[in-house]
């Protein structure tokens, strides 16, 4: 094959890859826009939150096993442990270095989704849950990051977050719009992290893993613990620091 023919073949391959490349900015913008009508619904609970909550409560009211199951799922760290475990299962499932970089970018975006949810959270009514939920946003973001690399594992992770979200709704810890809004916020940021600039962070972290695997996995283990517990151990220290 001549040099010119090789150049044309490479160009066609690049063009094909560009066409097949998911439209991450569009996906991110779509999920961001969805947050607005969900926020509107959270300030009008009679339209969505109350009917859905009442339907769920009527469904499990006479089913003691379902009530006990909802209480068990409400344990603070259970959801985090499951989702983070599935993320590590995806990590060690034989994926490429580029896929691992995308997981790292998505995980960082998921943590930022939780931080953003914490700082922009509003309480529509006295004694009502916050919208959006920082825990739901972070764990949904991690589940979506897994789904983008390993769809079957990702569906399991997303299913876990949805089941926990439903249990929180049944127990009155959250409203349906809290869960939906958190999911859309997380999806918007994780999709944004899959773009070129976000993926660059993941590739930089992968260079760290290649250069010093011991320090990388030491920090990864510590970070996994913090994420699994939703940074519960750092919250008192952080709140004191912010009050300074």
Description of the structure:
The protein is mainly α and 244 residues long. 78% of the residues lie in helices and 0% in strands. It has 12 helices and no strands. Helix 5 runs parallel beside helix 7, helix 6 runs antiparallel to helix 7 (134-149) and helix 6 crosses helix 9 (176-193).
Identify the overall geometry: globular
Radius of gyration: 20 Å
Tell me the helix content: over 70%
Mean pLDDT: 84
Kindly state the number of beta strands. Answer: 0
What structural category characterises the helix and strand content?
mainly alpha
Short description:
The protein has 244 residues and is an all-alpha fold.
What's the structural blueprint in terms of helices and strands?
Elements: H1 3-20, H2 24-42, H3 49-60, H4 64-73, H5 78-91, H6 97-120, H7 134-149, H8 151-170, H9 176-193, H10 196-211, H11 213-228, H12 235-242
Helix pairs in contact: 2-9, 4-8, 5-7, 5-8, 5-11, 6-7, 6-9, 6-10, 7-8, 7-9, 10-11
């Amino acid at each position: 094959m001549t040099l010119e023919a090789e150049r044309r073949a490479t160009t066609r391959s690049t063009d094909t890859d560009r066409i097949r490349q998911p439209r991450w900015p569009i996906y991110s913008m779509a999920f961001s826009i969805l947050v607005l009508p969900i926020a509107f619904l959270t300030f009008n609970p009679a339209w969505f939150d109350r009917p859905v909550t009442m339907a769920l409560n009527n469904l499990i009211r006479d089913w003691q096993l379902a009530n006990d199951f909802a209480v068990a799922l409400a344990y603070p760290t259970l959801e985090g442990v499951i989702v983070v475990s599935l993320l590590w299962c995806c990590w060690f499932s034989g994926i490429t270095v580029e896929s691992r970089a995308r997981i790292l970018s998505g995980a960082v975006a998921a943590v930022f989704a939780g931080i953003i949810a914490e700082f922009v959270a509003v309480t529509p009514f006295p004694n009502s849950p916050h919208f959006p939920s920082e825990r739901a946003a972070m764990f949904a973001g991690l589940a979506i990051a897994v789904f983008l690399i390993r769809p079957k594992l990702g569906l399991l992770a997303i299913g876990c977050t949805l089941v926990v979200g439903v249990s929180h709704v049944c127990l009155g810890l959250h409203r349906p719009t809290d869960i939906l809004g958190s999911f859309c916020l997380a999806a918007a940021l994780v999709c944004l992290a899959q773009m070129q600039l976000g993926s660059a962070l993941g590739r930089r972290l992968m260079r760290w893993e290649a250069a010093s695997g011991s320090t990388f996995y030491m920090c990864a283990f510590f970070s996994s613990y913090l994420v699994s517990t939703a940074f519960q151990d750092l919250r008192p220290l952080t709140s004191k620091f912010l009050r300074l």
